[in-house]
Amino acid sequence: MSNYNDIEEFLKELENIKALPTESKEDIETNKLAENGTEYLMSHNWCDSIEDGWLAISWGYILCVFLFKIKSSVPEVDDYIWIVNGDIPTAYIDIESAKYPPEVLQSYIFLMNDWIEAVELGNSTEDCYPIEVPPTKEFATNLKSRINFIEKEISKW
Q: Residues 109, 83, 75, CA angle at the centre, nearest 5°?
């Protein structure tokens, strides 16, 4: 994120995950997804630690987008990583390829559509973003309906 000049200003617009509300059912779901996002990041060997995290988008259990500041001993890894999770496969998006939430969701849609297409065509998913579900037509159909929902919501922005 070295060439991202106004990250501090952008972060002021987001909610820190340490201060997320916990009153409603949606709040509890969002907090759980923040926790899941943290665990997902830490499961990668290139993520040594997480310094902080912010909520960028929340649709409860359906979908959340978080931005995490991490430490990594791998020079190629950005200091800031997006996490998209919810009732969809979790994925990370580096901040160099997507700087703002709508771009993050577009990148996520691209990755998921690539996997869906491979499954629908009966091709290997080995070169696709790794999704932790079996590459079956049933999973592809379910994911496709969720991706279509996300695409419709993005078009409203």
A: 110
Q: Which of 125, 105, 104 is nearest to 115 (CA)?
A: 125
> What span, in angstroms and rounded, lies between the C-alpha atoms of 109 and 115?
10
At 114-136, the pLDDT tens digits run: 999 999 999 999 999 999 899 99
What single letter denotes the amino acid at residue 32?
Answer: K
Domain that includes residue 106, residue range: 7-154
Rounded to two decimals, the pTM is 0.91
2 assigned to some structural domain: no
- pLDDT of 136-145, one tens digit each? 999 999 999 9
The letter for the amino acid at 33 is L
Please give the tally of structural domains in the chain.
1
Exposed e or buried b per residue across 17-43, where buried means at least 16 C-beta atoms within 10 angstroms of its C-beta: beebeeeeeeeebbbebbebbbebbee
Please tell me the least confidently modeled range out of 56-70, 82-96, 141-155: 141-155
